[in-house]
Automatic annotation (TrEMBL):
Organism superkingdom: Eukaryota
Basic and acidic residues composition bias: residue spans: 42-53
Positions of the UniProt region annotated as Disordered: 23-122
InterPro entries assigned to the protein according to its UniProt record, in alphabetical order: TTL/TTLL_fam
Compositional bias ranges of the Pro residues kind: 72-86
One Pfam assignment: TTL
Keyword Iron listed: no
Annotated Basic residues bias: 95-105
UniProt keyword annotations, A-Z: ATP-binding, Ligase, Nucleotide-binding
Keyword Isomerase attributed: no
UniProt-recorded name of the protein: Tubulin polyglutamylase TTLL11 isoform X5
């Protein structure tokens, strides 16, 4: 064979491959313009619309003849990337029809990827007084509410008082078994006193307490002993019924002999505590703080603290307790349910005025006077975490008793109401913990004697809707399927306290 023949054979093979590629390219172009309008939702397009025309000089006929006369052989066609058209409405990214509640698997065989995630379902049939704030929160999250319950399981069950349902085997319930019992005044005092005996410096945020009637003799003996050692000591004590709420049955005393013993304590046990005589005052009024705390999990212990809370004011200027003013409840007791009946109670739509304000407005006012707000917050967070730690052992016993491991049942979470008093030196003092803090976003207004009307409270709505909404976001059972775009990643109103611990 001649030396140049391999080159000629290669050239001939190259030309044949080029012609075949050109023909295949033309055929593909014809097929590409055949679009099914029913499947993709687009009208058919002509080939001329798909291929852009290049401008040619002279009359079209001459250009066509010139193109026919000169036909250089093209080089071998390389694969051309053509972007896939966007999926039509009603189709998933892979061209398959969407259907509610069904998933579309990736072609790579990875885990399911939801094209249109179903909304989270919430059973609000037992929400009671928190229903209005809950409805607003569900609407803002675009979730699905079932106000009368439903036969199929829901993702979240929202209860107004406590959880004792035995017919819920899945989902999440916003109450822990045994929480109501654990935060009653006597049980809370016992739990904190155990920790005070072990860590007296860490738990000095809770007033010295005695349980009545069991510890009445001990209470009287200890008070007398201190008075004998310091005759100038003139203490004041506050008596709180164990099962009382909203200020019911609370009164102040100066001496153990003033306790109402006649039959009351036998039928209604109580706790007696040292009264904080030097509270921080604003506008000459005593106030306390209602903070909302989410107990997300017991094991591992996971706590969130709301950034915003309520400040509830007395309606009479404060004076230190003396025999003449001990019975002035509007001066000494900050309970909203009591002071709302005072003629001096001020309803305000402003967050920084009136008898109920936001906690942030108080912090802002203190900051303007040079107070270290970060230190105040740090002390409050420490108080909350240590209190929950004191309650956790017995809470776990209740939880494992009602929902044993291995048996079908819901997981639990709960919003708690911490009532905290700031002393004049800005030290926070724990007053009590509420298992069912009020989530009402309206208040009663007396139109005429004995005639009341519910009026929206903008301060309550601003604080409580944010707490419930972000609680739902954190408990969202579908956020993992949504990935990084899940609603649980956008909580703004709760501070995560999971990693805080006792030093």
């Amino acid at each position: 064979m001649l030396r140049g023949s391999p080159e000629r054979e290669l050239a001939a093979w190259w030309e044949a491959e080029a012609e075949a590629a050109t023909a295949a390219k033309a055929q593909a172009a014809k097929e590409q313009v055949r679009v099914d309008p029913g499947a993709a939702g687009e009208p058919e397009r002509k080939a001329a619309e798909e291929q852009p025309k290049e401008p040619t000089p002279g009359p079209p006929r001459a250009a066509e003849e010139g193109d026919a006369r000169v036909s250089p052989r093209p080089p071998p066609a390389l694969p051309v990337y053509r972007p896939k058209p966007a999926p039509a409405q009603g189709l998933c990214p892979h061209g398959k029809s969407r259907s509610k509640g069904r998933s579309c698997k990736r072609s790579s065989g990875q885990s399911d990827e939801y094209c249109s995630p179903r909304p989270v379902t919430v059973d609000s049939s037992k929400a009671r007084t928190s229903l209005d704030a809950l409805k607003i929160s569900i609407r803002q999250l675009k979730w699905k509410e079932f106000p009368f319950g439903r036969r199929l399981p829901c993702d979240i069950y929202w209860h107004g008082v406590s959880f004792h349902d035995s017919d819920i085997f899945s989902g999440q319930v916003n109450k822990f078994p045994g929480m109501t019992e654990m935060v009653r005044k006597i049980t809370l005092s016992r739990a904190v006193r155990i920790m005070q005996n072990l860590f007296p410096e860490e738990y000095n945020f809770y007033p010295r307490s005695w349980i009545l009637p069991d510890e009445f003799q001990l209470f009287a003996a200890q008070v007398q002993m201190v008075k004998d050692g310091d005759p100038s000591w003139k203490p004041t004590f506050i008596v709180k019924p164990d099962s009382g709420c909203q200020g019911d049955g609370i009164y102040l005393i100066k001496d153990p002999s003033d306790i109402r013993l006649a039959g009351t304590l036998q039928s209604r046990p109580a706790v007696v505590q040292e009264y904080i005589c030097k509270p921080l005052l604003i506008d000459k009024l005593k106030f306390d703080i209602r903070l909302y705390v989410l107990l997300k999990s017991l094991d591992p212990l996971e706590i969130y603290i709301a950034k915003e809370g309520l400040s509830r004011f007395c309606t009479e200027p404060y004076q230190e307790p003396n025999p003449k003013n001990l019975h002035h409840i509007f001066m000494h007791l900050t309970n909203y349910s009591l002071n709302i009946h005072s003629g001096k109670f001020v309803h305000s739509d402003s967050t920084s005025t009136g008898s109920k304000r936001t906690f942030s407005s108080i912090l802002c006012r203190l900051s303007s006077k040079g107070v270290d707000i970060k230190k105040v917050w740090s002390d409050i967070i420490s108080l909350v975490i240590k209190t929950v730690i004191a309650l956790t052992p017995e809470l776990k016993v209740f939880y494992q008793s009602d929902i044993p491991a291995g048996r079908p049942g819901p997981t639990c979470f709960q919003i708690l109401g911490f009532d905290i008093l700031l002393m004049k030196n800005l030290k926070p003092i724990l007053l009590e913990v509420n298992a069912n803090p009020s989530m009402r976003i309206e208040h009663e207004q007396e139109l005429s004697p004995g005639v009341f009307e519910n009026v929206p409270s903008l301060v309550d709505e601003e604080v409580k809707v944010a707490v419930i909404r972000d609680t739902l976001r954190l408990m969202d059972p579908l956020k993992k399927k949504r990935g990084n775009q899940g609603t649980g990643d956008r909580t703004r109103d709760l501070v995560h306290a999971k990693h805080a611990f006792l030093h």
